[in-house]
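### Sample
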Amino acid sequence: MTDDVASQVIKAEQDRISCLLDVDRDAYDRLHAAEYRLCNPTGTVWTKDEYLDLLTTGRLVYQELGLIGDVEAIVGTDVVVLRYRCVIQLTVDGADIPRHEAWHTDVYTEDSGTWRCVWSQATGIVDLSLAAP
């Protein structure tokens, strides 16, 4: 049962990534809970509506957003937490953000048989070998 739930939620996360790339409003609404919040790598928190507005107006455009490796899942009774690495390349307000890797943590809850993302946190991965000694 736990593996089935983890598989369902991982599939929902893959669909969520696709809807962000394609700016699919219907899928976006279905996969994000009303109380959804994203904490991006700058520490800025966007609500579901703010994030969708950025995507639909073209102020935020993902050129690339893809999983690297496996997705780890912790499955509870009515909550699932996912963690994975991804590669991201995007434009925000006309500024190109270079291709980079990040860790993502996403929290899903079940609502009437549908798993929806409630919280997302993206943490950029810095290559410390480039830092000055």
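The two ends are 50 Å apart (CA to CA). This sample (DUF4440 domain-containing protein) is used throughout the tutorial notebook.
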